[in-house]
Amino acid sequence: MNYPTPAIVSQGAVRRLPRAALLLFCLAYVLPGFIGRGPWKGADITAFGYMAELALGASDWLAPKLLGFAPEVDALLPYWLGAWAMQVAPAWVSPDLAARIPFVLLLVLTLLATWYGTYYLARSPEAQPVAFAFGGEALPPDYARALADGGLLAFIACLGLAQLSHETTPALAQLCFTALSFYALAALPYRTVTPWLAGITGLAGLALSGAPTMAALIGTGSAVIYLLVRPPTPESARSKLGVALGIMAVTIAVMVMSSVLDLWRWRIEFPEPTGQEWRSLGRLLLWFTWPAWPLALWTLWRWRHQLFRKGVLGRHLALPLWFVGVSLMATFSTASADRSLLLALPALAALAAFSLPTLGRSVAALIDWFTLLFFSGCALVIWVVWIALQTGFPQQPAANVARLAPGFEHSFSIATFSIAALATLAWAWLTKWRVGRHRAAIWKSLVLPAGGAALCWLLLMTLWLPLLDYARSYGPLVQRVARVVKHAPCVQTQGLSRSQLAALQFHGQMTLVNASPEIQCPWLIIDKRSLATLDLLAKPPLWISDSTVQHPSDPAETLILFRRSMGPKL
Question: For residue 504, which phi and psi values (nearest 5 degrees)?
Answer without folding.
Answer: -65, -35
